[in-house]
């Protein structure tokens, strides 16, 4: 990263306000470190500031003729800067460049507002000094904060969420005007019509997706997440992985990955789940006019759970959102976990009231597109959707270290049973087919052998129960039993209701 402006611009005072610039004749660690610390704290959100070494100042303005820095002193100054800046806590390093201007050399220090405020530095460079101060910038002066200002500083601690930070590695060209206009049109913004003729920088400033410093125009993370064609270039693993485990063996795994702008990958993942994973079952109940209809898992619950995962994921964490589909449940996992204002007990009891939003800007965009509601309604919406479908309650989990958050949505119990029965029938049919190959095909059908298999497993079953398990009529079962009895495979001991089957041949 380099200093975002040049020394000519800084000396003019036309772009960067004088209050954001300090001029020093020479490198003085005792004085300059305090100023670097003050710019890093950026209590008034100015965007930090600059120190130019090699210039006398008068009333905050550069004094001519310019002094410059002797070439032989530059290396020593830079080494001392690095060592002294390590005294700032938490860790903070400004951007430093050596500039040539009017035949002389100058050192330019850029100290932007830090992401881990508040910062402190030693009160003095004396070896016996133990006192540290949270220096701030007021007007054109570096001062120690009052108690009220100190409280403001603490309120600023980590107050710039990751999604609202400037991305120093990206350029304005990484923002796509077509994606921006499509979004504005979708939400019905008045900016959509204006965007046709509006200056691109002004448009982005109006949407607050770029930095607003006059000398430094860069996209913010949230702008890249929604309006870059390839946000994964800047945020590795900003993606949704859908992983399906059709059976308990884990042999038949299906994976599909969704990338691109956050709202697009969310919509594409939801569409895939809706079309490929969610299934409806209709059961006709005797004596009831209307059939029972239910889904293995209701789409509304999936939509809310996955939208919440996109909303609350840490995009500085190199882990994707994973949707894990197992035979009886869907588990949606994102990283990191819930903040510590949300207790484990609260999760178990569905009592979650957090006001600490990890990605407030992401949430704003998702709400505009009606992809999430926010306002702590997610859990309630998920539970209501499951309850209306007749599904079990969800499970919300995080670990003690808060490294992950998992939402488990259990499939409807009747759907799970039917799926289990189907898998069992497939297993029986496989064995039957093997047996048929070895036996007289003309004598016995697949249904006959299916009946035989069930009787082997449970000799106490009645004709009605066998028919129910196989999904065939009772007359079909009776025909099979007659054939099996006449060929010496089974016989009945006891009454039809209380008796049992005896296997004569294997």
Supply the key terms.
single chain, 506 residues, alpha+beta, Methyltransferase, Cobalt-precorrin-4 Transmethylase, Domain 2, Heat Shock Protein 90, 4 domains, six-stranded mixed beta sheet, four-stranded mixed beta sheet, 20 strands, elongated
Order of strands across the main sheet: 12-11-15-16-18-17
Oligomeric status: single chain
Q: What level of helicity do the residues show?
A: 25-40%
User: Structural class per helix/strand content?
Assistant: alpha+beta
Please indicate the percent range of residues in DSSP E strands (runs of 2 or more): 15-25%
The pLDDT mean sits at 85
Q: How many distinct helices?
A: 17
Largest sheet, strands/sense/barrel: 6 strands, mixed
């Amino acid at each position: 990263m380099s200093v975002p402006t040049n020394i000519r611009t800084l000396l003019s005072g036309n772009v960067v306000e004088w209050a954001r610039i300090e001029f020093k004749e020479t490198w003085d660690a005792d004085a300059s470190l305090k100023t670097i610390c003050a710019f890093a704290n950026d209590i008034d959100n100015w965007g930090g500031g600059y120190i130019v070494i090699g210039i006398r100042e008068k009333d905050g303005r550069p004094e001519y003729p310019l002094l410059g820095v002797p070439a032989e002193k530059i290396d020593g100054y830079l080494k001392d800067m690095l060592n002294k800046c390590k005294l700032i806590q938490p860790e903070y390093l400004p951007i430093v460049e050596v500039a040539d201007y009017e035949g002389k050399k100058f050192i330019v220090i850029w100290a932007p507002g830090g992401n881990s405020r508040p910062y402190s530095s030693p009160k003095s460079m004396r070896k016996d000094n133990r006192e540290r101060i949270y220096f701030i910038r007021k007007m054109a002066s570096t001062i120690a904060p009052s108690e009220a200002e100190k409280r403001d500083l603490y309120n600023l601690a980590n107050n710039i969420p990751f999604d609202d930070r400037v991305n120093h590695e990206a350029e304005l060209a990484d923002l796509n005007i077509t994606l921006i206009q499509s979004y504005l049109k979708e939400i019905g913004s008045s900016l959509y019509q204006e965007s046709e003729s509006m200056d691109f920088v002004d448009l982005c400033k109006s949407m607050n997706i770029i930095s607003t410093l006059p000398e430094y125009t860069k996209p913010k993370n949230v702008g890249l997440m929604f309006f870059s064609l390839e946000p994964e270039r800047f945020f590795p693993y900003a993606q949704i992985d859908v992983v399906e485990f059709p059976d308990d063996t884990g042999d038949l795994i299906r994976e599909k990955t969704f990338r691109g702008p956050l709202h697009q990958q969310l919509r594409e993942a939801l569409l895939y789940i809706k079309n490929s994973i969610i299934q409806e079952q209709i059961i006709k109940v005797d004596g009831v006019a209307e059939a029972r209809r239910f889904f293995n898992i209701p789409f509304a619950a999936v939509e809310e759970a996955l939208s919440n995962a996109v909303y609350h994921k840490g995009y500085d964490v190199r882990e994707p959102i994973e949707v894990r589909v197992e035979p009886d449940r869907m588990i949606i996992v994102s990283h990191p976990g819930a903040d510590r204002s949300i207790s484990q007990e609260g999760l178990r009891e569905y009592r979650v009231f957090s006001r600490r939003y990890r990605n407030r800007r992401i949430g704003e965009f998702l709400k505009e597109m009606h992809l999430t509601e926010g306002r702590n309604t997610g859990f309630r919406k998920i539970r209501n959707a499951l309850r209306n479908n007749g599904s079990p309650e969800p499970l919300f989990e995080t670990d003690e270290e808060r490294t992950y958050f998992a939402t488990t949505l259990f499939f409807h119990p009747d759907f799970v049973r039917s799926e289990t029965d189907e898998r069992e029938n497939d297993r029986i049919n496989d064995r039957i087919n093997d047996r048929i190959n070895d036996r007289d095909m003309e004598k016995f059908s697949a249904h006959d052998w299916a009946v035989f298999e069930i009787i082997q497993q449970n000799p106490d079953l009645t004709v009605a129960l066998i028919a129910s398990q196989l999904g065939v009529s009772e007359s079909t079962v009776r025909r099979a039993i007659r054939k099996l009895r006449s060929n010496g495979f089974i016989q009945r001991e006891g009454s039809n209701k209380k008796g049992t089957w005896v296997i004569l041949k294997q």
